[in-house]
């Protein structure tokens, strides 16, 4: 058995990008939530981030359909987990910024599920 490895180009984690109907609206929401500046902007794509760190992107998708979580008819594909100090205070702030609360909360004492303005579920937890 050989222990040789194949060398290739160096790769690094650069960003996670969410499809959405309005990149500016979703970027505004997450910029407020995470305190991240816009590092690139066009009509169809906005990237939030900081120099040398992975970013968060938002890409316009014509015909975008919101996930219907917890209804599985249009599943979420991925979600963010955000660490917070106080669940109630964080939820209140996020709702004021434009998040919405879905009808189902699997374990509200441990974490809360919210929906961003484009309908993507994300979680807040004091455990992260």
Give an account of the 3D structure:
With 128 residues, the protein is of the alpha/beta class. The chain folds into 2 domains: 13-63, 2-Layer Sandwich (Signal recognition particle alu RNA binding heterodimer, srp9/1); 65-128, 2,3-Dihydroxybiphenyl 1,2-Dioxygenase, domain 1, CATH 3.10.180. It has helices at 23-34, 87-97; strands at residues 15-20, 38-41, 45-48, 55-60, 80-83, 111-115, 121-125. Strand 6 and strand 7 (121-125) form a beta hairpin. The termini are far apart. The mean pLDDT is 89.
Which helices and strands occur, and which strands form pairs?
Elements: E1 15-20, H1 23-34, E2 38-41, E3 45-48, E4 55-60, E5 80-83, H2 87-97, E6 111-115, E7 121-125
Parallel strand pairs: 1-4, 5-7
Antiparallel strand pairs: 2-3, 3-4, 6-7
Short overview:
With 128 residues, this protein is an alpha/beta fold. It has helices at residues 23-34, 87-97, and strands at residues 15-20, 38-41, 45-48, 55-60, 80-83, 111-115, 121-125.
Label this structure with key terms:
128 residues; alpha/beta; Signal recognition particle alu RNA binding heterodimer, srp9/1; four-stranded mixed beta sheet; 27% strand
């Amino acid at each position: 058995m050989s222990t040789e490895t194949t060398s290739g180009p160096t790769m690094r984690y650069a960003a996670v990008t969410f499809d959405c109907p309005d990149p500016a609206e979703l970027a505004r929401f997450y910029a407020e939530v995470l305190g991240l500046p816009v590092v690139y902007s066009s009509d169809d794509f906005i990237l939030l981030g900081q120099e040398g760190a992975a970013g968060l992107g938002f890409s316009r998708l014509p015909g975008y359909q919101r996930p219907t979580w917890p209804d599985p008819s249009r599943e979420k594909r991925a979600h963010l987990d955000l660490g917070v100090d106080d669940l109630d205070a964080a939820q209140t702030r996020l709702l004021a910024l434009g998040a919405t609360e879905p009808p189902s909360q699997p374990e509200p004492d441990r974490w809360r599920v919210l929906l961003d303005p484009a309908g993507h579920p994300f979680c807040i937890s004091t455990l992260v």
